[in-house]
């Protein structure tokens, strides 16, 4: 398949699909850091969306969309930055491609667009880290966790709030490097995408339904609610 990993400078997803024999390319306004510039399209991704791709996996910037930045929403709504973020996200949602995946943290697109198909965590894919990640999926099956491991260390502040240590450590980096470090896809998730989506498809993508928690609640070994696709009664 010909695959576009949009807004990806790390090439983590691009390289995972290349290992599976696909013609995958990353695209970003930044130079790639994954070591394969020959697989990287540096520049505006929007013209690329008009080309023929078998699959698009997009990682649009979340700076103006994620709830972690809610304290600045009023300012960003007023000056138009949030609307720019919404419009850019929707370019991928409306892309004329049979298989599209959009990745973003928990944010406003759940209401401005629609609820994500599923929400995943790195620790469900063999990576001992926490990062709640939303996936909006068209034309593909939802990802299945590959290995449940520890959630990773958390830092608790004097206020009582806490956050994953890896995320907190990123504050030590300069702003631009901090953003890049936090946005990189974990290898376990990239490998699962390449493994499962190399052959996964839906006969009728329009019938795909979001994930919901079944009742009675089922819990995994760490006490988290297990999420399943909503099935027909």
Shape: globular
DSSP summary, beta strand count: 11
Question: What is Rg?
Answer: 18 Å
Major sheet: order of its strands?
A: 3-2-1-4-5-7-6
Counting DSSP H or I runs of 4 or more residues, the number of helices is 7
Mean pLDDT: 85
**In what range is the share of β-strand residues?**
15-25%
Structural class, by secondary structure, is: alpha/beta
Question: How would you describe the overall organization of this protein?
Answer:
The two termini are 35 Å apart. The protein has 233 residues and is α/β, with parallel strands linked by helices. It has helices at 12-19, 73-79, 81-93, 109-112, 165-169, 175-183, 187-197; strands at residues 2-6, 23-28, 40-42, 55-58, 100-105, 118-120, 133-138, 154-156, 162-164, 211-213, 227-229. The chain has 7 helices and 11 strands. 24% of the residues lie in helices and 19% in strands.
SSE blueprint:
Layout: E1 2-6, H1 12-19, E2 23-28, E3 40-42, E4 55-58, H2 73-79, H3 81-93, E5 100-105, H4 109-112, E6 118-120, E7 133-138, E8 154-156, E9 162-164, H5 165-169, H6 175-183, H7 187-197, E10 211-213, E11 227-229
Parallel strand pairs: 1-2, 1-4, 2-3, 4-5
Antiparallel strand pairs: 5-7, 6-7, 8-9, 10-11
Helix pairs in contact: 1-7
How would you sum up this structure in a few lines?
The chain is an alpha/beta fold and 233 residues long. The chain has helices spanning 12-19, 73-79, 81-93, 109-112, 165-169, 175-183, 187-197, and strands at 2-6, 23-28, 40-42, 55-58, 100-105, 118-120, 133-138, 154-156, 162-164, 211-213, 227-229. The strands form three sheets. A seven-stranded mixed beta sheet has the order 3-2-1-4-5-7-6, sandwiched between helices. Strands 8-9 form a two-stranded antiparallel sheet. Strands 10-11 form a two-stranded antiparallel sheet.
């Amino acid at each position: 398949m010909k695959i576009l990993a949009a807004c990806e400078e790390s090439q983590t997803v691009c390289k995972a699909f290349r290992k599976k024999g696909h013609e995958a390319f990353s695209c970003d306004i930044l130079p790639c850091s994954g070591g394969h510039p020959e697989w990287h399209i540096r520049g505006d991704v929007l013209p690329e969306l008009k080309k023929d791709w078998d699959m698009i996996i997009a990682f649009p910037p979340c700076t103006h969309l994620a709830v972690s930045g809610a304290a600045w929403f009023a300012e960003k709504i007023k000056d138009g930055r949030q609307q720019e973020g919404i419009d850019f996200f929707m370019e991928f949602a409306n892309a004329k491609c049979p298989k599209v995946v959009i990745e973003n943290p928990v944010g406003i697109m759940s209401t401005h667009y629609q609820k994500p198909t599923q929400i995943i965590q790195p620790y469900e894919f063999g990576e001992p880290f926490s990062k709640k990640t939303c996936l909006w999926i068209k034309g593909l099956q939802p990802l299945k966790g590959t290995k449940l491991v520890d959630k990773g260390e958390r830092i608790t502040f004097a206020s009582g709030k806490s956050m994953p240590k890896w995320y907190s450590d990123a504050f030590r980096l300069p702003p631009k490097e901090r953003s890049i470090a936090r946005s990189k896809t974990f290898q376990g998730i990239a490998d699962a995408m390449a493994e499962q989506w190399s052959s996964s498809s839906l006969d009728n993508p329009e019938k795909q339904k979001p994930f919901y928690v079944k009742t009675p609640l089922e819990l995994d070994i760490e006490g988290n609610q297990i999420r399943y696709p909503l099935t027909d009664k």
